[in-house]
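_Per-residue structure_
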Amino acid sequence: MDNKGQTSAEFILLFGGIMVVVLLVIYMYNNYISDLSGQIESKEVNEFNSQLNNLWRYFR
């Protein structure tokens, strides 16, 4: 019997399954980050930028 071939095929299937799970997690994380950026209001961003500009005056 050819046990080496069977073992190699099982490792290939296992590795392929792990890669599918990793790709799904990356896809879901990318969607989460994209949705999160849409929740930040422009007012908050403008306030943050103005605070950074105020700090920048001290370093010129």
